Amino acid sequence: MKDQLQVLEKEALQKIEDADSLKELQDVRVAYLGKKGPITEVLKGMGGKLSKEERPVIGELANTVRGNVAEALNRKKADIEAVELEKQLAEETIDVTLPGRPVPTGGPHLLTSIVEEIEDLFIGMGFEVREGPEVETDYYNFEALNLPKGHPARDMQDSFYITEDILLRTHTSPVQARTMNMIKGERPVKMICPGKVYRRDTDDATHSHQFTQIEGLYVDKHVQMSDLKGGVLDRFAKQMFGEDREIRLRPSFFPFTEPSVEMDISCKVCHGKGCSVCKKTGWIEILGAGMVHPRVLEMAGYDPDIYSGFAFGMGPERIAMLKYGVDDIRHFYTNDIRFLKQYHQA
């Protein structure tokens, strides 16, 4: 049995030496040191084959052999792991002197850029930017703007009602009404209010059930239509579309302004001569405006005999479409990266 243990030790050490991988090494460990391995079998058979005097001697030898094999396995495992680590490091070497791979970055959405450009323009004219809730009351969305219940002009803005008195706002004018109501006629107000609005409309190339509006309001003593045309709208058109653009005002109707006008800008393609872009008119409609209705001022706490004002409203989508030649409003909302990437530097 002593000779058998020595032979097993020699065999095991040789196989450990010849092993080239951790798997082969594990196979040797199981074969010689496992529960069914030959060394374990020798220990199990000592009771019936050895005398009382031989058992401690063979037992000690078996434990020595087991320890030598286990130690050899551990050394070989460490050697193989070191070789594999060296190989991995060699294969995954990073040349820190190479230029880094550029990480593509996004840019502001075209609509965001347009809104910020318009905000900067009007801030430069002395307007402040205000915001309000998108879920609005019927009072601020309609009644405070001279649109009482049953008014036929409500049909022009087919609305998303949540309850009888709560709806998704159809324009950003409620922010103007809220601001004037908060001030209660104690001082002038000069503001713009950008934001999302909602109307029950069929989505197509020029319409959307959700879109963006920017509305402006200026209320003070002695405010006139000439201040609106020359001081604001003409400056806006020239700064947004170019110094060569002309504007014209056409009579229109809005319940919260009187008189009301539509503003057109001269066509940049034909310069007013008439083409397919402007439908042969030489002009393109861009926004609505007018003098604030005395009833709206009165409901907000302003004395219409002392204060007057003007208001205007525009759609950034339409302005972006005209300025950059976008032919379908749905491009702004479908998140097509090919479209958006064109305007990162816009």
From TrEMBL:
GO CC terms: cytoplasm
Catalytic reactions of this protein: tRNA(Phe) + L-phenylalanine + ATP = L-phenylalanyl-tRNA(Phe) + AMP + diphosphate + H(+)
Aminoacyl-transfer RNA synthetases class-II family profile domain segment(s): 110-322
Gene Ontology BP, a term: phenylalanyl-tRNA aminoacylation
Cofactor binding description: Binds 2 magnesium ions per tetramer.
Enzyme Commission number(s): 6.1.1.20
Residues the entry annotates as binding Mg(2+): E258
UniProt keyword Acetylation present: no
A GO molecular-function annotation: magnesium ion binding
Keywords, in A-Z order: Aminoacyl-tRNA synthetase, ATP-binding, Cytoplasm, Ligase, Magnesium, Metal-binding, Nucleotide-binding, Protein biosynthesis
Broad EC category: ligase
SUPFAM superfamilies: Class II aaRS and biotin synthetases, tRNA-binding arm
Cofactor: Mg(2+)
Subcellular location: Cytoplasm
Protein family (similarity comment): Belongs to the class-II aminoacyl-tRNA synthetase family. Phe-tRNA synthetase alpha subunit type 1 subfamily.
NCBIfam families for this protein: pheS
Complex and partners: Tetramer of two alpha and two beta subunits.
Full protein name: Phenylalanine--tRNA ligase alpha subunit
Organism: Gracilibacillus boraciitolerans JCM 21714
Gene: pheS
